[in-house]
Amino acid sequence: MDSDSILEKPFTSLAPPMFDGEGYRIWAARMEAHLEANDLWEAVEEDYEVLPLPANLTMAQIKYYKERKSRKSKAKAILFAAVSSEVFVRIMSLKSAFKVRNYLKKEYEGDENIKGMKVLNLIREFEL
Known about the structure:
The chain has helices at residues 3-8, 24-37, 41-45, 59-81, 85-91, 97-127. By secondary structure, it is mainly alpha-helical. The termini are far apart.
């Protein structure tokens, strides 16, 4: 694909990065950038609740409510679409993008740290 054609597309039309259980840190950085570009990162980073609307609201308040609710749904949908089926079955019951992100971070970022420690231990053993 020509790099000029990528630059001509709005960033939001690019597909989110896919995660298959490997390379979590790289995927997480790319996903954060993707969500920020789509103005959805706040919905992932903060576990805010969108309460039911009270009576007698202004149009601005209604618009704000709809935007926050929509952002939460879109962020979760993007995260769901950006993982393999094997990863998806582990997160499909989670109710918010915030919970999905925290689960993935806990589950996969820790694994990479453990793998790194094991590699270092093997290198040390080999050197002895």
